[in-house]
Design goal:
The protein is α/β, with parallel strands linked by helices and 335 residues long. Helix content is 39%, strand content 16%. The chain contains 12 helices and 8 strands. The chain has an 8-stranded mixed β-sheet with strand order 1-2-4-3-5-6-7-8, with helices on both faces. It is globular and about 45 Å long.
């Protein structure tokens, strides 16, 4: 029943206005590198920022509930996903009374693609700047994938601004430098540029163990590949590769046990995503990506944390098991 519900949800999710279709077959006018032409489920606003002397714009959605409970949740997206994929979670939280703020981090989605390198500390400062702009003193954070690494940095650097932390299928539960040799940026750019839309679809399905129908994955492929016709595509590509280097060079695994605020890990049992694993020595690859076990081990070391593992679920746990995710997250935030 849970799989049937997830399939129905996915069909509904990707029929609403922010869905785009047929990335692999139908030619279309390319998106801009700020995803111009790719619709989001709610109105998008822009916050001017300066990072390393560069003028940039941070895109975000700010969704007010019909019956406010006086609390706010910030959603932090993953590396390969525009923040539009949070649509069902925005609806879930809004219906429960939460104001929901959903930024695209600099370098991602509808936000600017910078000339400079990406750093978690800079993204954390940008997120706090957004909260200051919106006059939000304290918030809960619900993060996914790469957003989990950022959530850890924010929780460590600004603990007084965060009430609860939900880490949904986070990456960064291990220090990938212990397994994977460093890769030159230009080599990464070459590899990413050669990737085809069909190859990317297979990569998502394999690396993330996604339990969704193929049509539900198409918008992610669209968002990645319909920008290739843009004249600014090389700028996007360099920013995307910079985010991969950020994951590798700026581990947070050593900081996770130091988090003292209430923390919930929500893990997919089948999610063994481990960035860089193909570049690791073969003898080490099998040791990487034991994410559910790593989350449980971290939670046991932390003063106020627990880990929940959802069976038969991959990396997109909030889309694959929406009812269980709702139960866990709303129950945790309500404590």
């Amino acid at each position: 029943m849970n799989r049937i519900f997830a399939a129905a949800l996915a069909a509904a999710l990707f029929s609403i206005p922010f869905a785009s279709r047929a990335a692999d077959t139908a030619p279309r006018e390319p998106y801009g590198i700020a995803l111009e032409g790719f619709a989001y489920p709610y109105a998008v606003h822009l916050l001017p920022l300066v990072n390393d002397s560069e003028q940039l714009s941070m895109a975000y959605m700010d969704v007010s509930p019909a019956r406010p409970n006086g609390r706010t949740v910030v959603l932090l997206h993953g590396r390969n996903f525009p923040s539009s994929y949070w649509g069902p979670v925005i609806k879930m939280l809004s219906e429960a009374g939460y104001r929901v703020v959903v930024p695209d981090q600099i370098g991602f989605g509808k936000s600017s693609k910078p000339d400079g390198e990406l750093h978690f500390d800079t993204l954390a400062r940008n997120t706090i700047a957004l909260l200051d702009h919106l006059k939000i003193d304290k918030t809960d954070i619900v993060a996914h994938s790469l957003g989990g690494m950022l959530g850890v940095r924010i929780a460590r650097a600004y603990p007084d601004r965060i009430a609860h932390l939900v880490l949904t299928a986070p990456i960064g539960l291990e220090d990938y430098r212990l397994y994977v040799p460093p890769t030159p940026t230009e080599k990464m750019i070459e590899t990413e540029d050669k990737l085809t839309a069909e190859g990317y679809r297979k990569q998502l399905q394999t690396n993330y163990a996604i339990k969704l129908p193929p049509e539900a994955i198409t918008p992610f492929v669209d968002a990645r590949f319909n920008i290739k016709g843009s004249p600014d595509y090389p700028r996007w590509l360099r920013a995307f590769v910079s985010s991969g280097q950020m994951i590798y060079r700026e581990p947070v695994a050593h900081e996770i046990p130091l988090i003292t605020l209430p923390t919930l890990f929500v893990m997919g049992a089948d999610d063994h995503n481990a960035p860089g694993r193909p570049n690791a020595p073969e003898a080490l690859r099998a040791k990487m990506g034991q994410n559910a076990e790593l989350a449980k081990a971290f939670a046991a070391k932390m003063p106020n944390a627990r880990a929940e593992v959802i069976p038969d679920t991959g990396h997109l746990v909030f889309l694959e098991a929406p009812e269980k995710y709702r139960e866990l997250v709303l129950g945790f935030l309500g404590q």
